[in-house]
Amino acid sequence: MSAPQTAPGEISGWPILKIKYRTDAEKIAALLPPGIDPSDSSNVHLNIYNVPVPDEPEQGVLIMVDAEYRGTKGLYSIGYGIDQESAIMISHDMNGQPKYPCALDYYRMGDRVTARCTHQGYTFIEFSGNVTGPAADLPEYEENEWWVKVSRAVGGAEKSYDFPPHVVKVRSTYATTYREDVEGSLSLLESPWDPIQALLPVREYLSAQLDTPAWLGREITLEGALDPEAFWPHVDTIGGSRWPGENGGPRRRE
Question: Does residue 220 belong to any structural domain of this protein?
Answer without folding.
Answer: no
